[in-house]
From TrEMBL:
Annotated InterPro entries: Aminotrans_V_dom (IPR000192), PyrdxlP-dep_Trfase (IPR015424), PyrdxlP-dep_Trfase_major (IPR015421)
Signal peptide: none
Keywords, sorted A to Z: Pyridoxal phosphate
Full protein name: Aminotransferase class V domain-containing protein
UniProt keyword annotation of Glycoprotein present: no
Keyword rRNA-binding found: no
PANTHER family associated with the record: HERCYNYLCYSTEINE SULFOXIDE LYASE (PTHR43092:SF2), L-CYSTEINE DESULFHYDRASE (PTHR43092)
Domain of life of the native organism: Eukaryota
Domain Aminotransferase class V residue range list: 73-269
Length: 443
């Protein structure tokens, strides 16, 4: 389906002949020519990106709405959201369309799932002290949601400590099993496990299929996978993963404008019908997909450009699968280049990276706190035109001397060029050459 352009308000049919050649490098740069050319933008993981052709599609949807809102809501919105949901269903290999709801972002999806958990405590379906397990490196907003909904309702929260740097999936599996054992102590039930697919900071691909399987074997009631970074970045297959709930943003790695995410709810999950959108509107009680598709008058355009995004990714050789491989291979190569230049190391093996890699920064930079990491990030942005998140890892007991305590999370998306990473390399090399330490930023 093409973008809406006809003056009569109808959505036109795409009669263009299919392209016989793939997108060129110059066409990629043109699609992202609205990016600030003075900045090495190697932080796609935080906010994602959106190509010009998709922005144009979004703008046309917005105009279609503004031109005649009644016509838009009656004749276009519902069926167009349904079209987007169908594409997402196929992308993630869900069995049924009603398993896919479109929401604003992964934080909204998390609220939907944890809201249900809180009701189960309040309505005495769960006992006070029953357990929710979450990874220590869960996204900060997810931890806040667990605090707001689970802990406040009387649930006990068990965090899974994860090593970093990490060397293998076995380390993660071992810590996860140990956390489940702690959760079951005293006869408590583990009601929910919240598992990341790709952790944010530090960024590591979690062996999610294995952890879900362990949850099934160990009698965990439900599993929610927070996969904010996943779709467009790593393989996402609902049948293989087998979680009860799974969410991923489409505006991070799948080229949608902000903000759009999907929430998968396995039809066979006994609790699926209890899920409700936190914004209650006229569709309440008609199923989560319907509730999410109408939460009052708002801009739904980000949810309607999914067909245009599919057109964009199919301009690349191999489509989205080709893009994922391209980004993974490139970010590992750039990460290894930076680590070699600085005499450091990656935060995980290449197979535990997706389109983001953690790269150790020179120990002499003196990153000794989260505050130092944030100040260094700002310094790189303001003084060197490099946008990259910095992670602080406290020294472990027994570590002495110059220890790598700061890691940069670099991303690679199709618009990135090798010069972006050289610019970062040279900025850090200059800081080292100048005798810079983070202590100077506090003066």
């Amino acid at each position: 389906m093409a973008s809406p352009t006809h003056q009569n308000g109808d959505v036109p049919t795409n009669n263009k002949k299919p392209k016989l050649s793939f997108i060129t490098d110059s066409e990629i740069q043109e699609e992202f020519s609205h990016h600030d050319p003075s900045v090495a933008r190697i932080n796609n993981g935080s906010f994602g990106c959106c190509p010009s052709s998709v922005i144009s599609s979004q703008h046309q949807w917005q105009l279609l709405n503004l031109r005649q809102p009644d016509h838009f809501y009656v004749n276009h919105l519902k069926k167009s959201i349904l079209h987007s949901r169908t594409i997402i269903k196929n992308l993630v290999n869900a069995q049924h369309l009603d398993e896919i709801s479109i929401v604003d972002n992964a934080s909204t999806a998390t609220t939907i799932v944890l809201q249900q958990t809180a009701w189960s405590f309040h309505e005495a379906r769960f006992n006070k002290g029953d357990v929710v397990v979450v990874l220590h490196y869960a996204y900060g907003a997810v931890k806040k949601s667990i605090e707001a909904y689970v802990a406040r309702a009387g649930g006990k929260v068990i965090e899974v400590p994860l090593p970093f740097p990490v060397k293998s999936n076995d380390e993660i599996v071992r810590e996860f099993r140990s956390a489940l054992e702690r959760g079951r102590s005293g006869g408590k039930r583990i009601r929910l496990a919240v598992i990341d697919h790709v952790t944010s900071m530090p960024s590591v691909v979690i062996p999610v299929k294995e952890l879900v399987k362990i949850c099934r074997e160990e009698g965990v009631d439900q599993v929610f996978v927070d996969a904010a970074h996943a779709i467009g970045c790593i393989d996402v297959d609902m049948q293989e993963i087998g979680a009860d709930f799974y969410t991923s943003n489409l505006h991070k790695w799948l080229f949608c404008p902000p903000s759009i995410a999907f929430l998968y709810t396995r039809r066979s999950s006994s609790k699926g019908s209890d899920l409700h959108h936190p914004v209650v509107s006229h569709e309440y009680g008609n199923g989560l997909a319907s509730e999410s598709a109408w939460i009052g008058n708002r801009d739904y355009s980000a949810q309607l450009v999914v067909p245009a995004v599919l057109d964009f990714v199919n301009r690349f050789e191999g489509g989205i699968e080709g893009i994922k491989k391209r980004n993974h291979d490139a970010v590992v190569e750039m990460g290894e280049m930076l680590a070699a230049a600085w005499g450091t190391h990656l935060g995980s093996p290449p197979e535990m990276c997706a389109s983001m890699v953690m790269v150790g920064l020179p120990a002499c930079l003196g990153i000794s706190s989260d505050s130092d990491a944030m100040k260094l990030r700002t310094h790189l942005r303001d003084d060197f035109g490099v946008e990259v998140p910095i992670y602080f890892r406290p020294p472990r007991d027994g570590e002495v001397g110059l220890v790598v305590t700061g890691y940069a999370r670099i991303s690679h998306q199709v618009y990135n060029r090798v010069d972006d990473y050289y610019k970062f390399r040279d900025a850090v090399n200059q800081l080292v050459s100048d005798g810079f330490t983070c202590a100077l930023l506090s003066k």
